[in-house]
Amino acid sequence: MYRKKYVDILGYYIYFLITMDSTEKQNIKSIDEIIVKSLNNEELQEFNRIYYGRVDQHHLALKESSIKLAASNHFEISGYDFPGRSEETRSPRKIRIGVIQHSIAISTNKPIKQQREAIFNKVSKLIEAAGEEGVNVLCLQEAWSMPFAFCTREKTPWCEFAENITDGLSTQFLKPFAIKYNMVIISPILERDELRGDLIWNTAVVMNEKGIVMGSHRKNHIPRVGDFNESTYYFEGNTGHPVFDTKYGKIAINICYGRHHPLNWLMFGLNGAEVVFNPSATVSGLSEHLWAIEARNAAIANSYFTCAVNRVGTEVFPNEFTSGDGKPAHNDFGHFYGSSYVTAPDGTRTPSLSRTMDGLLISQIDLNMCRQIKDKWGFAMTQRLDMYARSLSNYIDGKEIQLVKDK
Quick check: bond before 157 cis, omega within 30? Predict the structure, then answer.
């Protein structure tokens, strides 16, 4: 009976989406909210067990001051715990991780300095809330300090947002927060590589709790899908798959489109990552049916925590643009649907943040769970990297693939 009801609810949700116009679809807060309102307590627990992997969501008790700060600044705040199993030989390695999703703050036709300053003012409130809640590692969304203008394919004025990773305005803005809250901050920006011919990269900067830039990772995979053809601005990154050994554990960043490539996730795991953040910018008409699956699958396959972070809102640009797909020219490329969430190595996950609001999602995690799940499932032990490597080498060299044809 329960299963039929869940199918009916999900079916209704899908029908709801199909029959609504685009504006109405954008205004749906979340599927999580629809489910909670549709089920009684016993049914909801069973749905949570099947869908989220656990009956109890383990809500974190948040400070009243944080809740008030969120309400007065119009952003959502939520927190969840992922308790690990108690061990005799190791103490718990509990940390708090946080992700921030947000819309831009003012119109894209305003001066660059005003746009950036308005975003800084908005995001400062969310960072304050994260700091007051004891977040140890905080990740912002892809290209957080600017509109996601790359799909317009206009160089002017958007390249003016590009900045140096060590002393750029975004880094300088975040440094006092890192120091004040003893917090590691991941800042995905549009990088200007001044040491190498002023090249531009899509980059995630990692700043430690002392406000010092540890290093950076450049986006490995560049989309060429519809509006999302970003190669006008930057090409594939050259930093490999770095893992940053911070005070709070080993972290990595799989930027946006890289989440569609399982081997990209794999390499961060092979390099020792315990938490992989996926700062993104993706819209409802393109990828929403994939969003809840990919980062969760990666957490399961690689026995680490994953944090999927997506921006929110619809960004309208002064000039129309086309995508070479026969569709009419347009001034925006869809609704960024937020829905940021965190998944544990065992596949359990949090509910998502809103599809329509700015938000801060906090998760308390025990990094010991990474090894615990590796021991349970044995994925690292049973994978056949030697066999994969030989097959990949043969494929790359153009040798005959293992395709058995009928005679």
Answer: yes
CA separation, residue 373 to residues 20, 163, 275, 301 (Å): 42, 40, 14, 10
pTM of structure: 0.93
* DSSP track, 112-148: HHHHHHHHHHHHHHHHHHHHHTT-SEEEPPTTTTS--
CB 26 within 8 A of CB 356: yes
Q: Are 317 and 346 in contact (CB under 8 A)?
A: no
- CB 154: neighbour CB atoms within 10 A? 16
If DSSP codes are grouped into helix, strand and coil, which group holds residue 26? helix
Tokens of 123: 């995001």
Q: How far apart are CA 391 and CA 395, in angstroms?
A: 6
C-alpha closest to that of 191 among 150, 220, 154, 161: 161
Mean pLDDT by 10 residues, the chain (407 residues): 52 48 66 88 93 95 98 98 96 98 98 98 98 98 97 94 97 98 98 96 98 98 90 95 98 98 98 98 93 98 98 97 85 96 98 97 98 96 96 94 92
Annotated catalytic residues are 142, 219, 256
Residue 3 CA to residue 46 CA, distance in Å, equals 9
Integer angstrom CA distances of residue 71 from 68, 76, 95, 340, 378: 5, 7, 25, 19, 44
Query: Token digits for 121?
Result: 């003012």
Query: What crossing angle do the helices spanning 64-72 and 112-132 adopt, rounded to 10°?
Result: 160
Q: What is the pLDDT of residue 15?
A: 46
**In this predicted structure, what is the pLDDT of residue 167?**
95
